[in-house]
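Q: Can I see a sequence and its folded structure?
A: Here is a first one.
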Amino acid sequence: MADSIPFRTTDRVDRPKRTLGSRQLAAMLPDPAGARPVYRHLAQAISALILDGRIALHARLPAERELAAALNTSRPTITAAYDLLRQSGYARSRQGSGTWTALPEGRTPTGVARVLAPRDTAIDLARAAPALPEQVLVDALGHVAPRLAEHTHGPGYYPFGLPDLRAVIAERFTQRGLATVPEQILVTSGAQHALTLVLGLLSTPGDRIMVENPSYPNALDAMRRARLRTVSVPVSDTGWDIEIIESTLREVVPQLAYLIADFHNPTGLLMPEQERARSLRAAQRTGTWLVIDETLADLALDVPAPPPFASHATPSGAGQVITIGSMSKTYWGGLRIGWLRAPSRLVTELAAQRIATDLGGSVLDQLLALDLLARAVELLPPRLERMREQRTALAAALAEHIPQWTWQLPPGGLSLWVDLGEPIASALAERSLDYGVRIEGGAYFATDPGIFEQRLRIPYTTPPDTLREAVHRMATALADGLPLPSTNRQPHWVA
């Protein structure tokens, strides 16, 4: 029987004008001390924040006098920085209303640039997403063609998702230990779409959301664009500090909490069952919605696949948990198929919300997903074995070529979270481009700027020979010396 526990949402408010406070902006900018000229250094840093989405477009920048005081610099310096931003197209002034952020013609913001195909032949280690064997897709297309033809007799709109696919996903949850019916499932266009729908329904600008630090960059971007205030809890090499999670929930009382408990991205850690139960109880006491990202749950390499996080909830607490899943990490991101499990009433609300954006997902993609999930017992084991081989190859190459780096071998997932021993990740990523390797430093996974500069997330989603060559190129780049990181570095796609 579908659960019908009532849920709370916040009242909608008029969207406030976007004004960036001087202290808020100052906290996001690097220390200008020692930079010459200071105004150019500040202008470059602000433009980089605009490109990266950290500063919203069409937001009013602080008054020159206020920002000068916050940065402990002169007003003429801020005036010159703003002038340079206007000249380069990153700001516009309106008579009597201040200076507002903008985007130069021809420049692409990070959110778009990240999904564009690489313009060169570099080895791409920025995306932790596996390819799909060609024959698997060819076979699936052959299987679904007759069923697709049957659907052409109707309009093709399924806001909740194809009924058969909802049933299969619900059955997967049940088999994993969480009794689920199709009415509790909403099929989405990927996990990111599911998260965006949840944020749009259950939060308003200014609400607090608890997140892990580090965490998945695209999820953090979605929260920033929803104008939520993130409250971070650390994930260290030893895992989660459950007492910090409990105290944060108790003291902050966030509207939502977003956790990746299964082979955490980027660390690869697996949250123990006892800590899951304690997190659930703590969230229940504060009325916080738990949004659990299980996109990596099936990628168990050295341990049994974990049961759903929500299976540890008490009957009274189960209605406060939303579980997000996806085909992207286990099968192929090109399908754009994800889902969420939630109380049936909430699923209905979310389906009503998605009507305003896409009316429902592609029938063809959903039929392909249905076929692949039906053959999971056949398809998933060889993919996991391939991941183990690639993980072994990456670890061996790092030990051979860059033995000073350290890491823990994760029990599952798609990447290593490597400690470089010194804060050089951004500089190494920039130099590695010259050697034909795309990779992102740990700062991209941080909830706040300036941290995890000693870390790299290195996926093992490419063939062993490619991984060995990538590590060799990075070792060469490291040996040849690193430049200071540039604030004008072009963003890349992170998955």
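Q: Show me another, different protein.
A: A second, unrelated one:
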Amino acid sequence: MDPIAHPPAALPQTAPERHWHDLPSPPGWPLLGHLPGFDPLRSHLAFEHWARELGTPYRMQLGPGYRVMVFDDAELAQQLSRERPHGFSRGGRIQPVAAEMGFNGLFSVEGEAWQAQRRLIMQSLNATHFKGWFGTLAGITQRLQARWQRAAAAGEVLEMTDELKRYTVDVTSALAFGRDPNTIDDAQGDRVQRHLALLFPAFMKRVMTPFSYWKWLPLPQDRRVDRALAAVHAHARACIADARAQLSTADPSAPRHALEAMLLQQQALGLSDADVVANVITLLLAGEDTSAHSLAWTLLYVAADPPLQQRWRERARAVLGAAPVCPRHEAVHALAGFEHLAFEALRLRPVVPFNGYETLRDTTVAGIAVPARTKLFFINRPALTDPARYPEPQRYDPERWARECAHDSRAFLQFGAGPRVCPGRHLATVEMRLVLSMLLAQFEMELACDPAQIEEINAFTMMPSRMPVRLRPHPR
């Protein structure tokens, strides 16, 4: 029996000590509140700034009827995550905007529909499938290594955010849909990748805009987004048609890719083709951005520390030997710890800068009476840089993740928590191990700009504005 099919214990409902309107608030405008001048792409920085100024929780108003409370309490965020989808939802405009854009899949869907879609994705991305998929993963990683080897020999500076997106698009497409677009070797970039690059920033902007102006007065960028959406939907439908045509030769115990696993389950779970399309696009978007941005932020710290590179190079070569990439599935386990390079970067530069919830009914949260349909944003960085949780919190120290007393896993919500924990976390960890071990075993690296020039942009996941890196082949 699925344990998440039953609602967890509710938050204790004690008499409230305060009400929403008692909380401090930044200066705002009549009616519009804090909406004028609010930049969705830098929203996390505004939330963090006001948290330092006012303390938490504090309240905001992003337009008429759009009430917001901002917290920095990691334990409370964990508790609310366990309350979903029964006491709280992801809320706000996430589900309606996702539905409007045609990818209201596991990430955004709520209620009973979420439980069926959860089973669909969790079973499709089951870790037991990865042994059969490892050859594809290793081949795409070796393709990336060969590209970087050519660039290093030519003395090129690589924009690593773009490089890593090419890699994650190829991996996600190949493992999720059985299609390898080979964007790594395509100098112009795959057409689907270029379309995907427009969607997450547009989604973030539309979610944080309280009214859908683009339905009545679309701007040129809105029309570009609509064209990109049409192209991505066409790609998803073509993938589904191809996979369905090959179902007669499928082995349910060893699906060739995640979409095949989805289609094998679709009828039993009572899901429509629209549900499958929504989750295909969700996998494309989430699989591209989150892992690529996590790895890009990792390079900011690793490239600046040659002694760290040498220590981890020795670890990588002890596993890889003379091979350019991890040679077999069993060896992935010997690379355990390479993901800590990324986890430590995510602690300082969280790609999920805040988690959002919405109250489904009038309730009490942390002793505060909260009206129904209030948005609760939990900013993540304060807990991740709290010296009580992480000694020397501003120091990049990936080894701390192997020392239980040196980190607090309860504050690390980059893969979510509770029933909504990320189903792709195993794939993300494998990608981190493969890419970082290959990179450190083969190359020396240095950042090709002043780190102060790199800005944080919250295009639904927090990405660097740039990450130029120069690679040099390291002699054996």
